[in-house]
Amino acid sequence: MAAASATSDYPRGNGTGGGGWTGADRALLLGLVAFAALRTASLVFSPLELGVDEAQYWLWSTGFDFGYYTKPPLTSWIIGLSHSLFGHHEWAVRLPAPWLHLATSLVLWRAADWLAGPAAGRIAAMIWMTLPSIALGSFVISTDTPLLLCWSAGVLALVGVLTGRLRERRGMLLAGGAFGAAMLAKYAAIYGLAGLALFVLATSVLSRDTERQKVIGWRGLGLFALGMVAVASPNILWNLANELTTVRHLGDNANLDLRSYSLAGSIGFLAAQFATAGPVVFALMFGILRTRRGDDAGLLLLCLSAPVILVIMVQAFLSEANANWGLTAMPALVLWLARWMAQARPVIGRLAIGINLGLCALLLAVTTAGSLGPVTPDSDPFRRLRGWQALAADTGAALEAHGAATVIADRRATASLLSWHFHDRRIGGKPVTVLVIDADGRPTNHFEQNLAWQPGAGRRIVALDGRKAPPEMTGVDWQAGTPPLSSTAISRNRSRDLYIHKGVEGE
What distance in Å separates the CA atoms of residue 466 and residue 483, rounded to the nearest whole number? Predict the structure, then answer.
């Protein structure tokens, strides 16, 4: 193995990676921990409620499994652990987020140090913690949170092999295992295997024209795949035993049947990445996307980032794509950027980090306050994090008055949040159960698959619907008259309006 070719002109690090901690290292670490603590305080004091996905992941965590309808299990496992330790609080569900992102910054710190020295390591950690997407991602818990930590750990192991700090067999198995753990968070981790395969193919082609020895070859790729499959195997086996439920949902989520063929969609996705990375940092990333001959590290970082963006741009052209789908490109881009900043552009680097730090401070203030006050736009993205407690209070009052312990929600979002608010609610000695109607008998979410309404006998129910007319449910006698309306303001000009229907299932 010829590790010396991996870093080309960049020196091997000797700070956090192997030469002990300096005063600058300790000061930065203290600052990063303080930053995570501030973000934690924002979780505790913010008036914003759980989002739909957060509530759903929590609900999954109440029944341990190796897979769930729409996602692999790792995020729910993490939420379940935090919830069991700290109790039934919104902040307890979200608590792992800022600390997992802190851990990711430390992993990238070590990787950049190995690639280009102590300065690059510190820069990488600062860049990661000040990315706007990470600032927002530290306030909510999502599948991206553990995905990015595991992905970064895999990149660290690959860097270790490239720089000779890890032996090939051990390093590639560790890298594959880390990406396998990422697969347990989100299937986007498969981009890592594809990117590494592209890297091995590229270096194989280049080795025919140069005398350099390949650092990672086909054997390394095989070891990587072995480690990845081994760690991800619990979810793979779960899918095989459950008719590939999650995999099929992933295909449906792509919405390729829409076939919009919109160039504006691709441009819009690319533009959205400026919001996730910050305007200056993202511009700098694109300014340095070039690889010198013989720079295996640069080529690896390119293969782990650029294809992700390109594939999702194609997805956006064919149908649609969310901005966060490109986040797996960020760890490699941050390493690339840190390496470049440490060697060539310290002033620009400080400016870039400073701008993003300002954006982070703004996001921290907004999430803590819950809004922008009088300047909050009508399209307030936080509207989805308001009004659920009020709806639960109205629904709970209707359940008590009707002597019912069964709620028929109008959709998955409502069912998820009511399940959270009714987690220990009992009426007439019975626990409150939240169900949905699967109209076509083809489940499209966890509730339709596992908590779909089935006709009963003599059961009192409460149903939520956006219409005055009750939902179509065979054998249910509905209470006459106009049903009460639960109306809660969720933004300046929007409210969550649901009629509360009371009924009794036929004998």
Answer: 11
